[in-house]
Amino acid sequence: MASLNSHAKDLSRFWQGKILWDIPMAQFSTLKVGGPAEAVISVENIEDLTRLHHWLKENDIDWWIVGRGSNILVPDKGLTGVIIVLAGEFRSIEKLSIKPLSSGEEKVLIRAGGGCSLSKLVSYCTAQSLTGLEFGVGIPGSIGGAIVMNAGAWGCDIGSLVDSAILMDSDGNIATKQGKNLGFLYRKWSMGKNTILLSATLAFRPGNKENIKDTCRKYQELRHNNQPVAEASAGSFFKNPPDDSAGRLIDEAGFKGFSIGGAKVSETHANFIINTGTASAANILDLMHVIQQEILKRFGIKLEPEVHILGGGLNQS
């Protein structure tokens, strides 16, 4: 794959909408770091996305899907190619149907676009008295990013709610897949590289609105008390190893408050790397590597980043 370089004028002629050139990716990342993207394009509907995808593939241009930027780390050198932001109809929410279950209960099917924010869907479900997504309160990011990484908290994950999804594969083909066929695992799905989640249908149960609000308040309070919510971060930085906690290991190794440049291990929660205001992506990566090496040395465990480090393939976040 290649950068835009000599294709920039061709892209300007091809794309009728607005193109942002050489935009710092720090603007699109909750970590507030990252060098410039060659071009940023907002896409409003599937037809336009299909056209753009075809052009990029035909011209062998790199591309990336970026949603709310809550789980990405962009290198200081930036990204070649085109950053695609899912806007317009990709941010919609629609109630599809109510289906009775054999148990006598009901499930309500809600379709949300890949660019819809998770917080917007949590608010929608609360207003509609639908239970199941309370764990998502306070988790930043888009529906697409949440499903690609099977986001979760408090023992729940979004993969368990997905009834079906409409996907675009790396060749630009669009198909619907059942949730059980998306291969959800801990903090990831099993779809091929460069698969784009266009929309997902999630199944919820009717519930009591006040109980749902109370649960959301409880989870929000837990986040505020136990996580550095006011600091620039990408959320939990490392995946939890089997039957253990990355935060516990990092804390036990004495890393709380440890910093490299403007990147620092949070003193509130050791599995959060925060940007104190002057961090570069290199600072964060250096800190990541130091932590990984020490945890491997002390405990024989290799911590894997939960954060998607862009530069070698598509991430929808």
Could you provide a short overview of the structure?
This protein has 3 domains: 5-88, 2-Layer Sandwich (Uridine Diphospho-n-acetylenolpyruvylglucosamine Reductase, domain 2); 90-214, Uridine Diphospho-n-acetylenolpyruvylglucosamine Reductase, domain 3, CATH 3.30.465.10; 228-309, Uridine Diphospho-n-acetylenolpyruvylglucosamine Reductase, domain 1.
Q: How helix-rich are the residues, as a percent range? A: 25-40%
Radius of gyration: 20 Å
> What would CATH call the class of the largest domain?
Alpha Beta
Largest sheet: 6 strands, antiparallel
Structural class label: alpha+beta
**Rounded mean pLDDT score:** 93
Please trace the helix and strand order, writing H or E for each element. HEEHEEEEEHEHEEEEEHEHEEEHE
Distance between the termini: 21 Å
Overall geometry:
globular
Counting DSSP H or I runs of 4 or more residues, the number of helices is 7
The total strand number stands at: 18
Low-confidence stretches: 312-317
Please tell me the total number of domains. Answer: 3
Q: Supply the CATH architecture of the largest domain.
A: 2-Layer Sandwich
Content of β-strand: 25-35%
Could you tell me the CATH topology label of the largest domain.
Uridine Diphospho-n-acetylenolpyruvylglucosamine Reductase, domain 3
